[in-house]
Amino acid sequence: MYNVKSMKAEEFISHEEILETMKFAEENKNNKELIDSIIERAHDCKGLSHREALLLLDCDLEEENKKIFELAMEIKQKFYGNRIVMFAPLYLSNYCINGCTYCPYHYKNKHISRKKLTQEDIVKEVTALQDMGHKRLALEAGEDPVNNPIEYILECIQTIYDIKHKNGAIRRVNVNIAATTIENYRKLKEAGIGTYILFQETYHKEHYEELHPTGPKHNWAYHTEAMDRAMQGGIDDVGLGVLFGLNLYRYDFTGILMHAEHLEAALGVGPHTISVPRLRSADDINPDDFSNGIDDDTFEKIVAVLRVAVPYTGIIISTRESKTCRERALRVGVSQISGGSSTSVGGYAEKEAKEDNSAQFDVSDNRTLDEIMLWLLDLGYIPSFCTACYREGRTGDRFMQLVKAGQISNCCHPNALMTLKEYLEDYASEDTKEKGEEVIKKEIENITNPKVKELCKERLEKIAKGERDFRF
Ligand code: SF4
Ligand code: SF4
Question: How close is the Cα of 388 to the center of ligand 2, in Å?
Fold first, then answer.
């Protein structure tokens, strides 16, 4: 029985409700009147139900699709402007006891290099990341209570926050580790993490169990209820995601929105972010073995409809996607991207030798962070290294209230300019610096509050003189 407020996975991600939703969308497919009324209503930026969203996703009426994309771009502009938040993944360990059939870290894979960073390795990796200009990391680790216990993860977080190198600093550490207990989530919260990220992979229980034949991850309900436990453990910001390509995309698209609705209904705050990874090739993994891959057009439509359905939730895309695909997704909804990423354990300080491969997947976008910065600036975006909300305690419902009141952009915009300025001063190539200064000069005029504008101008001057870490 479907119950959005239930704390049982089978009830808030009800299989029957997803099937009913898919049936509803099929029965009403291309119902112009209904679709137009949903698009019209969605201009209020209050989001869509999972049923409404799937109807829009399924629509193939040209005129209506044009309206959906326009609306997605309008909502993106309203909440996120032309700012793109930057981050990098940091792989701590690829030891894993699970048997996920789509991931090269599955325990049966004997030819991948198994690695785990020591605290000394972390200092080297994070120093290299700081030297690129990164301020926000997403930690990644396989599930292995012996090699990667919670104490190891906590120690790594502490090490990372303590590294001060030149003007560099990691100011926000997000964590993507296996589903765990409320007690462990409490420890992560106390360690000062930003967002807790956990991909559902697929919401389809039966299929999920086939894809995870062994290991603790096999337990679909425990995995699906992880965000509830994380929030009960005091973590305010959680990040959802499915791995598109594993299961039918319409099913998982509906599932992820039901999950978002559940978090809002049962715990009072929707997801902070949604990630939209697609299956990629990797050691021992061939995406062709999975028959549910989606093309770039469908992918772009998913991003656009998500943007309309959950306007307050950041959308993340990684270097799994190519430059062209990222450009399309940025236009219609993505607000956060990684850059200059290594998906190996220890790939930043030193490039891995081919025979020593420890990567989780092949990267499509291999450009350096500086190349990505210049590309974004040329496209008219403001790359931002802002981490202010988390550090000002603007998390969970405090954050959502500001977003919903349309107030957050008063902070995001000047913060984006100031963190971009820091990047230009400390890490940028000549071309990026020149372009970035041009963008700052133009964008400072778009700060509407005169006091904030003045203060931001003063702070930009101070940054040029060597001061760092201002925020609104
Ligand atoms: Fe382990 Fe995660 Fe890979 Fe599964 S997806 S094998 S849990 S690292
Ligand atoms: Fe994100 Fe807050 Fe910074 Fe805006 S001000 S970019 S919401 S951290």
Answer: 6
